[in-house]
């Protein structure tokens, strides 16, 4: 039991060191040697847990998936029951969380995952399932997907360093995307023309 606790502690220490390197220096600086130096542990201790850098990145991705799975579970337990757009709202909130939470790894680890695209297969499958659920609950599936894509776009722009929005403005836009009333379909009414006044007889 004590060995298992020690092993889990070492694993978490290694992941914390990898997170620090990714957030501070980017994926190009993530190596086994750098992780060992950052964590103040031996290279052998790192390799006992993770044989390669790719294994570290895979563990980080799994950690991120687990974090947002718990995020979704907590949301549905607390607020999802009374929300007819619960699936969409949870996704928009998760996107906002991914850019605002200081421990978020989304924008930091994608560069590393690019070296091994197969790691994204699990995320891709989960995303496809979520979009199916978003469409199923929506009165207007196309509009729901557009709102979902807009939220994702702000995250991607932030990850790529292309987002010109201040954090306050980005939060305001996320709030707009969450506002179901602002996006409710309004029936189009034809404008009625007023009858032209008849010319008066002289």
From TrEMBL:
This is TetR family transcriptional regulator. The keyword Transport does not apply. The keyword DNA-binding applies. PROSITE patterns: HTH_TETR_2. Pfam families: TetR_C_28 (PF17937), TetR_N (PF00440). Residues 8-68 form the HTH tetR-type domain. It comes from the Bacteria. InterPro entries: Homeodomain-like_sf, HTH-type_TetR-like_transc_reg, HTH_TetR, TetR_CgmR_C. Gene3D superfamilies: Tetracycline Repressor, domain 2. Residues 31-50 bind DNA. Keywords: DNA-binding. GO terms for molecular function: DNA-binding transcription factor activity; transcription cis-regulatory region binding.
